[in-house]
Amino acid sequence: MKILFVAAEVSPLAKVGGMGDVVGSLPKVLHQLGHDVRVFMPYYGFISDKIDVPLEPVWKGEAMFQQFAVYQANLPDTDIPLYLFGHPVFDSRRIYGGEDEAWRFTFFSNGAAEFAWNHWKPEIIHCHDWHTGMIPVWMHQSPDIATVFTIHNLAYQGPWRALLESMTWCPWYMQGDNVMAAAIQFANRVTTVSPTYAQQIQTPAYGEKLEGLLSYLSGNLVGILNGIDTETYNPAEDRFISSAFDAESLDKRVKNKIAIQEETGLEINRNAMLVGIVARLVEQKGIDLVIQILDRFMSYTDSQLIILGTGDRHYETQLWQMASRFPGRMAVQLLHNDALSRRVYAGADVFLMPSRFEPCGLSQLMAMRYGCIPIVRRTGGLVDTVSFYDPINEAGTGYCFDRYEPLDCFTAMVRAWEGFRFKADWQKLQQRAMGADFSWYRSAGEYIKVYKGVLGKPQELSPMEEEKIAKLTASYR
Ligand SMILES: Nc1ncnc2c1ncn2[C@@H]1O[C@H](COP(=O)(O)OP(=O)(O)O[C@H]2O[C@H](CO)[C@@H](O)[C@H](O)[C@H]2O)[C@@H](O)[C@H]1O
């Protein structure tokens, strides 16, 4: 099948959060499974520092009264064609934000649609989040190009209809108050990134005011669990960490703990449980719960805490101030740094993710892959990826709590702190977490079924595809 991925972020070229990881890794697996997958993204100013981009564009077009040029390169370390949408509005300073954000990404979507109509015509455009949400609306008039729209985060819904109408053409049939709502109505298929979140967004608690629409269209909505790029996120081969290790050589892991303690100014102490957080510091991630229990948790236990993230200024300030109360025990790094995030996954003992809502979550998967035990609130994809630790039956992969309450989060953290003292059991827990299947292969199979469905074919895998997926899954570890 010919599939064009369109997104605002593609890792490792431009990444703010998990969507970038998905768009940077899923196409590789679909390509391995024999599909002609290509990727279309903005040509941010910093991309030419990371890969070679030819000076001559492959195509020039016009959208929203602006000229643009599309440059062709390859997704790093692959031969997957990468199309870069070039216009001065996509500069080096930012991916998101700014007063012209709604205009910028609507223009980008319009450019992608023009590109698909006039230069490389895919059978399917796979769109990601509101930034690409107008594409399904426009493609509605092109029955030979189907669309799949993936919701990575329903909280961000893009510009409202009146603004859209003032910026660009909205076809007469377009309905929906904002871009996200319109995309949900017009995509041939809507997916989100875990089965539990697919259910939750049909309820008022998680639907962000679109629950009515989502439950009305629930027959067209499917939750497919994310995977991670198991080749780049591999503790046995990761060149960004101090000491490579795998599930059979966990004794080597402690060097990473000492290294991250040294790097971030924590006391060198291999016995203190080191809690890690790597996240966008926004309401979604449960940072307010962390702030509420931190004083008590740090006083009650001898744990250490490292937080890596950027986001809302009030969270950044509060965390920074708290760190000054626990010198040597709490480190806050207010930056976005992929290499450092890997060192946190590889060095911390537990990974805290008390999300208010979580479409899937990739950080907990990366943490588990690096033997760092997740403590999660059971919501969205965290329910589907982390199971209760049961030391007696030697089952489960992490510590979980249900209610979004400080006490419940505190209790889960104390349980983990107590569990951490039983080294032999802890090691088995780490091995189980590391042994879970984080690969994209099974989920890529689910996407292939969705693609076949929107092309009007039976939604099933051929025996050959099944066999290939089984082989790849078995080989990745
Ligand atoms: N300061 C920092 N420095 C370096 N790396 C950092 C970082 N802060 C975050 N990251 C990285 O960004 C990614 C975060 O991915 P998540 O899926 O956990 O959350 P996010 O909310 O961004 O994604 C949204 O989209 C994804 C993809 O569908 C869903 O899994 C998720 O639930 C949804 O909220 C991880 O790769 C993490 O390592």
Automatic annotation (TrEMBL):
E.C. number: 2.4.1.21
Residue intervals of the Glycosyl transferase family domain: 267-405
Enzyme class label: transferase
Catalytic reactions on record: [(1->4)-alpha-D-glucosyl](n) + ADP-alpha-D-glucose = [(1->4)-alpha-D-glucosyl](n+1) + ADP + H(+)
Keywords assigned: Glycogen biosynthesis, Glycosyltransferase, Transferase
Gene Ontology molecular function: alpha-1,4-glucan glucosyltransferase (ADP-glucose donor) activity
Top-level division of the source organism's lineage: Bacteria
Pathway field: Glycan biosynthesis; glycogen biosynthesis
Pfam families named in the record: Glyco_transf_5 (PF08323), Glycos_transf_1 (PF00534)
Residue ranges occupied by any Starch synthase catalytic domain in the UniProt entry: 2-215
InterPro entries in the cross-refs: Glyco_trans_1, GS/SS, Starch_synth_cat_dom
Binding site for ADP-alpha-D-glucose: 15
Family of the protein in this entry: Belongs to the glycosyltransferase 1 family. Bacterial/plant glycogen synthase subfamily.
PANTHER family linked: ALPHA AMYLASE DOMAIN-CONTAINING PROTEIN, GRANULE-BOUND STARCH SYNTHASE 1, CHLOROPLASTIC/AMYLOPLASTIC
Functional note: Synthesizes alpha-1,4-glucan chains using ADP-glucose.
The protein, known as: Glycogen synthase
Protein source organism: Synechocystis salina LEGE 00031
